[in-house]
Amino acid sequence: MTHPFHPFHGRRFEMIEYRLAWGEERVYFLDCAGQMQRLPAAWTDAVGEDPFVAVAAGRSPLRVADLLQLADLLERLDTGRRVCK
Hints:
Blueprint: E1 15-21, E2 24-30, E3 36-40, H1 51-56, H2 64-81
Antiparallel strand pairs: 1-2, 2-3
């Protein structure tokens, strides 16, 4: 598990299956209790490293598209809090 905020971060599991589900690539594995679990493949090392992440080498955590999406979200949240007088 490579996602930094997931409780399984840093733990290793044997992948049972890799498939497209709910419009997203997912990995399926058995947890320590033997229960089938699934996660987005992007949260694991099952997919190669994102080229942007590799080139940025820690210098830029967000792509331009990510920043634009964040700015749009913040604007919508700010607009929603404004009260008309």
